[in-house]
Amino acid sequence: MRKKSEREEWIRKQCHTLKHESDAAEKICLEMSGFLKNRLPEEKKDKIESAVTCFENNLHRMEYAKNAGKNIPTGSDVTEAACKVIVKQRLCCSGMKWKDDGASVVLTLRCLSHSDGRWEQFWNKIDRHGFSLAA
Fold first, then answer.
1. Is pLDDT at 10 greater than 90 in this prediction?
2. Can you tell me the distance from the alpha carbon of 19 to that of 5, in angstroms, rounded to the nearest whole number?
3. Distance CA 91, CA 102 (A)
4. How far apart are CA 46 and CA 1, in angstroms?
């Protein structure tokens, strides 16, 4: 069994590998599966099995190195911030109730107004083609 400091160092290295190397999640999953061949207390074995299962089920989502190369955010910070600014600040004020259609229109407009250049692009299209409620 590894010492706590060795385990922490291994985890730190794997996090770095996940962020910077393609197919890292698959390699780490295989390495963790190998740990199960060692004699381990049942509790640790269960935790490793759980981690392996999590990796196996999410390998297709764990392409961090590829996504970083495409400037695709890997954390939830951008999504959480958008929910707060776009949705919560407008739709969740005291006493407000929204129907789906009304909320959808308001959120669409807020997304346009909070996206660089999209508000102007929207109005330029309206100027060229007119406005229609038909899809």
1. yes
2. 21
3. 10
4. 15
Q: Which residue range forms the structural domain that includes residue 44? A: 4-69
Q: Give the integer Cα–Cα distance in Å for 92 and 41.
A: 48
Q: How far apart are CA 78 and CA 112, in angstroms?
A: 16
The radius of gyration computed from the CA coordinates of the chain, to the nearest angstrom, equals 23
What's the total number of domains in the chain? 2
Within the chain, strands assigned E span none
- pLDDT confidence tier of residue 135, bands split at 50, 70 and 90: low
- Work out the angle at residue 17's Cα, subtended by the Cα atoms of residues 50 and 82, and round it to the nearest 5 degrees: 80
Q: How far apart are CA 68 and CA 84, in angstroms?
A: 24
Last residue of a domain, one of 69, 87, 109: 69
Residue finishing a domain among 45, 69, 93: 69
